Each structure stands twice: as C-alpha cells, then as structure tokens.
Amino acid sequence: MKILVCISKTPDTTAKIAFTDNNTKFDTAGVQWIINPYDEWYALVRAIEIKESKPDTVLHLATVGVADADPIIRKALALGGDEAFRINLDGADSFQVAFQLAQLIAKGGYDLILTGKETIDFNGSSLGGLIAGINDLPYISLATKLDIADAKAIVTREIEGGEEVCEVNFPVVVSAQKGMAEARIPNMRGIMAARTKPLTVVEPVTQEPLTSVTAFELPPAKAGVKLIAPDQVEELVRLLNQEAKVL
Amino acid sequence: MSVLIIIDAAEGSIKKSAFEALSYGADLAAQLGVTATGVALGKTEGDLSALGQYGVNKIVQVNGDQARSDDPSVLASLLTALVTREQATVVVFSHSLAGKAIAPLLSAKCKAGLVTGAVGLPTTENGFVVKRSVFSGKAFAHVRIDSALKLISINPNSYKINTGGSAATVESVLLTAAAPRITITKKQKSSNELLLTEAETVVSAGRGMKGPENWGMIEELANVMGAATACSRPVADAHWRPHNEHVGQTGIAIAPTLYIAIGISGAIQHLAGVNRSKVIVVINKDPEAPFFKAADYGIVGDAFEVVPAFTAAVKKLKGV
Ligand SMILES: Cc1cc2nc3c(=O)[nH]c(=O)nc-3n(C[C@H](O)[C@H](O)[C@H](O)COP(=O)(O)OP(=O)(O)OC[C@H]3O[C@@H](n4cnc5c(N)ncnc54)[C@H](O)[C@@H]3O)c2cc1C
Hints:
The complex is a heterodimer.
Chain A: E1 2-6, E2 9-11, E3 19-20, E4 25-26, E5 33-35, H1 37-53, E6 58-64, H2 70-79, E7 83-87, H3 94-108, E8 112-116, H4 127-135, E9 139-149, E10 152-159, E11 162-169, E12 172-176, H5 188-196, E13 199-202, E14 211-217, E15 226-227, H6 233-243
Helix pairs in contact in A: 2-5, 3-4
Chain B: E1 2-6, H1 16-32, E2 35-41, E3 58-63, H2 72-85, E4 88-94, H3 97-110, E5 113-118, E6 128-134, E7 139-145, E8 150-154, E9 169-174, E10 182-189, E11 201-205, H4 216-225, E12 228-231, H5 233-237, E13 258-262, H6 268-274, E14 279-284, E15 297-300, H7 303-318
Parallel strand pairs in B: 1-2, 1-4, 2-3, 3-9, 4-8, 5-8, 11-12, 11-13, 13-14, 14-15
Antiparallel strand pairs in B: 6-7
Helix pairs in contact in B: 2-3, 4-7
The structure holds flavin-adenine dinucleotide.
C-alpha cells in the first residue's frame, strides 16, 4: 500500500494578517509558518497510524512550494513518513497546485491520497477534489474516519446533519477533518531521523492558473462594545430587539 | 447563455443556502443579461416552479438514478453535460458539504476557474472578479477568474434572499454519466437539529461553563431563541460537546445574524471562525477577555447568573 499526504505551509494561526504592495500581497514580515493544521493533525497523523499498523505501507509526503517550504516538510517528516517531494513552484491558484500534484500522483502509483479539509489561509476546500477530477479518481470529502479493510478504504464522511460510511476501491482521494486522528508532537528520534530522509525537489510542469488574486481587503473594524450591567439583562434583550433588530 | 445554479437539496428538502444561491445566480444572470437556470439533481420536495420567487427563469430537473448518486464524481459529470446543454458561462454552488465535494470536480473536468467562499456578486469592469473570504474570515480577497466557464460557491448566510419573482418554467431532463465508484454502507443522522452553518442565531459556550453538566442552561437559551448551539475547541476536545459544534479557525466557520458567546475568552483562532457574524454578544466574567474587543454588546458577569436571566428576558419578550 502506497500513501501520499499533501502538505501545505500556512501562516501560524496567531499571525497578523496584513497586506503590502497596494494590498496585493500578504505581508509575510514576522510571520511564523506552520504545517496546515488539517494536513498535519488529521491527514498526516492518520496516515502514520495506518503505517504503524501495517509496516509495509509506503508513506510519502508532497508539497508544492519554493525552498522556504523545506523546513515545513522536514517538520512533517519528523512526525512520520518515508520520504518527501517538493514540487518547485510558487503556486498561483489551487488548480495550478493540484495539477502539479496530480502529475506526481499519476507517476507514483499511490493507492490513497490524503489532503486536509482546507488550508487555514485560503480556505479553498478544493485541492482534493481538483486532484481527483484531474486524474479521474474517486473523491471523498470531509472525512472524519478512515480505515483500510480488504484492499478497500472504509471512510466516514460528514453529510448534512449526520455522517455516512462509504466504501471505495483504491486509488482514492480523501480530504480529512476533525475526528480522523489526534494531533501528535514529534519526538527527538523523529526529528533526528527527518534530517536524513530523502526530500526530492521536482521541477513543475507547465500549467497556467485559472484564477488570480487582484487585491486583498481587511474587514471594517467594529465600532466598539456596548456594555450592559449584569443585572440589566432585559435591557440587553431590548437592545437586540429594537436597536440591532436581530431578536 | 445562462447562469446555472445548483440547488442544494440534502435528502430532497431544499434549504436556505439554496435560496441564497438561487437569488445570487438570478441577480448575476440579470447583471450579465443571460438566463438564470436552477438545477435540481434528483427528487426534490415541493413545487419547483415556485423557486421562481428567488428570481430564476427556469428550473432543470435532472432525473434518473444517477442524479441521486452519493458519488460526487457522478454528479460532476452530469453537470458537465448540463453546462454544454444550457450553454452556461457561470455555475453557482452553495459552499456547503455537497458544494465542497462537487464544485472542485467540475472545475477540474471543465478546466473552469473556481472561487469558493464567495461573499458578493462579481464585478465585471476589469475582468470577472469575485470577492471571497480568506484567512478564516480575517480578510477578503478579490479573485479574478480567467477561464471561459466560471464556477463560484457562495458562503452560507452571505447573500440576501430575493422575493416576489414570478413562477419559473420547469424542464425535466435525463442525463447519463459513468457508474459510481463509491458505495454507502451506513447513514447516521445525528438528528434533525438546525444546521449550524445555516442558523440565524447561534448560542456558543466555552470552558467558562466548567463542565458538560452545565450545558442545560445553554440549550435552554438556544431553545427559546430558536438558535443552534456551538462551542469553543477545548470544549469539543474534552468531549463536553460533539465535534460538529466546534467553531473557529480549525472548526466550522459561521456567519449568523446573532452570535452569543458565553464563557469564551475570544482567542484569535476562535474569533477567526465567528467574526463574520453580524452582531456579537459576549458574556464573560473577565472584563479583560479579548472577546469584548470583537463584540457589539457585552455583559461582564457570571454566566451562571446571566444566562438564566437572559433566557427569562427572551421568554418575556416573546411572550412565552
Ligand atoms: C492552531 C490552533 C488552532 C485553534 N483553533 C481553534 C478553533 O478553531 N476554535 C477555538 O475555539 N479555539 C481554537 N484554538 C484554541 C484557542 O487558542 C483557545 O485556547 C480556545 O478558543 C479557548 O477556549 P475557551 O475560550 O472556551 O476557554 P478559555 O480560554 O479557558 O476561556 C474561558 C473563558 O471563560 C470565562 N469564564 C470563566 N468562568 C466564567 C463564568 N462563570 N462566567 C462567565 N465567564 C466565565 C473566562 O473569563 C475565560 O475568558 C486553537 C488553537 C491553536 C493553537
């Protein structure tokens, strides 16, 4: 069994969101970068658990990015995985990124391709579906559970007001969310081992993006809080009803 | 030429997010001077022509087993055929569970640029540019779509629902696609509770509630307000509440009209998922809690006293 986990680099959740170049670029000054939480906590950890239960599993990681993504992919390798690929492209949109990964996947013969539900910077929630669409693979989105049995993936996915269990043959693309695994912290052995695991840089194939960001914008600041005394709850209800008109 | 609007109808019933998408698609079609066509996949409850009230001209009902498929690839390939048949230039989805599954597959099949999480109508002066939410609600991006066919999925609670349109014409079509590759072996409905992403009002509580045994008063407040319940991440992590109530940057992002945060400190990761709410009320005993900076109304006080009084006051207002 061969698994590929797609890893994205995102700003830390506490990073200040600001823009430069006339609001056309994200201001990276002072920003700490992390592995996208959905990729790390759910997709990667679940893949590691599968490898732990079936040691002959081959687990590869891949990212699309330039050299500054290397520390992130090494961090991911410290958690687990045999080797990693970095496709050397500063991706402009999800389609362009998915197209690169789809080529790697077509060549690599993977059975299971895992992505996070979305990245916490662009929140596209589209990468897994794009890869599946480009390579004509089945796609299960927003999975909360994943098991392997009889050369099939048994996946629980979220549906409106509930969950359903699906069965699918390999190869398949699955996007992972909360419930699938619990976050882990890399140990010293993992960190040491990650230094010598292969990290192959792959040159990108030509594919124009289909979309481009023309400008960013910050939401307007709140006017400020109106405080109501704790023994005046009826006044709060009156304000919500008559002033804010939301009750 | 037309704008297609994919009607989100989980289990056959058409939901509010679909009314928003239909209104958005109708307004966009008017702006572009083309036909607004709603697409109903599989059996839906009720009279489809009545969906004209949201401003659409026509509804295409796709019949056949495949239109009810649980495999999003099957639905995407039906839609690929429909795009050609209806000469669509734009396809509008709800950024819901179904939309998140199908839209990227259609994008890949048609090489059509996709903008997810849209919060407003496109502008067309300098290319086709759509405003969307990014950085978990902390900012917006204006994204230009350069492909001929354009796909947009709109965030729930982000577009005004139209009223008063005249009846739509309804047309049935039978389309075929490749066989499904996904088999459903079990369905579990948690309940018929109000969907968190669609709720107008959300009552949310955090670690300040001390333990799961104290959620009765939260549920009661939510009940009298007709609200959905939500919680902060540590509350879900500790299994005080189910995972599907966890809102924030790494949980569900919501944009209700009214968000009431009780005993939640307002950490940046929590705010990221709720700051698109129209009005935020914060109840916290600590006047320094960061949530007050993001709030419209606040009470500095003990939740165990304020919440029951709040419930009583709402009951009084509603005369129940
Ligand atoms: C990568 C990352 C991602 C994260 N993602 C999320 C996310 O998606 N969603 C999320 O919620 N968090 C997220 N967090 C966690 C976040 O940083 C906070 O730790 C969390 O939101 C705090 O939850 P809380 O406000 O319930 O608890 P606390 O921070 O412990 O706050 C409890 C609050 O209750 C108040 N309180 C106590 N007793 C009472 C009382 N009797 N009456 C009234 N008020 C009272 C206190 O004053 C305090 O403000 C994330 C963290 C990281 C690092």
